[in-house]
Amino acid sequence: xxxxGPLALGFHTVVVVFMMAxxxxxxxxxxxxxxxxxxxxxxxxxxxxxxxxxxADFIQAFYNSLILAFTAASLATLIAVPAALAISRYxxxxxxxxxxxxxxxxxxxxxxLGVAMLRLFALMGVNxxxxxxxxAHVVIITPYVLRLVLAAAIGIDRSAEQAAESLGAGRFTLFxxxxxxxxxxxxxxxxxxxxxxxxxxxxxxxxxSSPATQTLPVRMYVYATESxxxxxxxxxxxxxALTAATMIVLDRVYGLDRVLVGKx
Amino acid sequence: MAFLQLNAxxxxxxxxxxxxxxxxxxxKGEFVSLLGPSGCGKTTTLQMIAGFVDVSGGQILLDxxxxxxxxxxxxxxxxxxQSYALFPHMSVRxxxxxxxxxxxxxAVEIASKVKQVLELVRLAPHAERYPRELSGGQRQRVxxxxxxxxxxxxxxxxxxxxxxxxxxxxxxxFEIRRIQCTVGITTLMVTHDQAEALSISxxxxxxxxxxxxxxxxxxxxxxHPRTRFISDFVGKANMLAGDYxxxxxxxxxxxxxxxxxxxxxxPEKIQLVDAGxxxxxxxxxxxxxxxxxxxxxxxxxxxxxxVVRSNxxxxxxxxxxxxxxxWHADLLRVLAADEVHP
Lengths: 264, 342
Fold this sequence. Notes:
Chain A is built from 12 helices and no strands. By secondary structure, chain A is an all-alpha fold. Chain B has helices at residues 42-50, 72-75, 92-102, 107-120, 136-148, 166-183, 194-200, 218-223, 228-233, and strands spanning 4-13, 16-26, 31-35, 57-62, 65-66, 78-80, 154-158, 186-191, 203-208, 211-216, 238-244, 250-252, 261-265, 271-273, 280-289, 293-300, 303-310, 322-326, 333-335. Chain B is globular, with a radius of gyration of 24 Å. Chain A: This is PhnV protein.
């Protein structure tokens, strides 16, 4: 690989600093002993972290978000993989329509979707249902999985599938042993992106979640509208730490390059 | 009946005829090449035999059995692709074992068969590697081993060497032929490279615009090309206008002749002799060195003629040298007009 020149190195540094600085500041603020959002000057304290764990509503919201993101991302992947395979290899009537339909939730503002779904769910009498919240999330995160799986499906060598067929593989075996492993980086990357998007979602969730199904971002948002104290920073720091830990474990166990880029 | 037989096999894509009523009979153990320029339908023909492309008309018979509409999996043919088509997430061993696993062969037997075939293609030490860790030639051998291990009745090779560089390509040509002879497997190879087809095939099938235009053993094909196109596509050829003399033998056009024939004369069939002797006089326009031979472009009254002379170690003729050109009259070939226009 070619090494970066001084200009590129400088640019990369600026980008990384720009992206990381807010995270670093939030993490530092989380350790403040003060009652206001401020950088710790007089020493470090864990009082705001303790405060988080004493709040059952936050813990519950975190679990809600985790389960919601996991099920929604998995369901979105189950929908997106067959859809992407069909779109990438068959010319069927309505192919462009389906392709556009699957990607349209990216274009429509979540605010609009949120209001529309609130109304729809009210009509259906399913407001506050976890299942319907989850399905709403599936709608908005499926495009991410579809995009990545589509890219992977277009990129694979179709003759490898033909080879497997001529060697005697049936349709299901072919998918399980050849096609799926070849598009796995796209599937895994798409799932991860969908998970993060669902976990992160505020705008739509505000409209369609109830106190019982409140997600962590919604809980945080509601809390922040009432009071501003460093507990928010502590929650953020915990989420960042959890994300980083997940990434490290994933990298150690499986290799992030392999999951997201497709290197073996 | 031949082992593999195509009867009036056709493929039509919309309004385009990709393959038109192709007949072919391949005997057991034979190595046959489908040769032609890109878009001539040779790959489509191979894909119909493999079962990847639906047949529009005609029949494919394998050992007397009609496989025209059988699924690829049930045909049991060995296929080697231009892109190798190895499974990137499997080791060499698992790639080769794939077909046997699909056939539910016992593990012990799989291990011994894989070992055997990897030895045949000289890859035994690399069994645990992944495709990305292998060179192009090695990948091609894995693809070959994977196709051979299931002991298919027919081996289909789709441009197997076109992704390799020139040196390796020649080496792999001999390798493929060696393996084919060792196993004795009936083989059909698609190629656009005439040298490749001539060097390793028992018979060559020339295709042009979806039709078979000549089927012959390589030597006959080269010496007796039927049409102008074939003469030009297979090897190099000088095209000369000619006519029949009083005895009905073809001759190069002379004063008063009407030149209604197209004659082909291979460049290596022409001798360069002293100026003033020979059939026609010329002047060296240009010369090119190929190591084992010299290629001369010579200006004559018949037009520009290419002459290939093997390098016997003597110094070459300089540009502008006056020379005579001599050849045996019976080496002139009368060519039919092209009935197909690609």
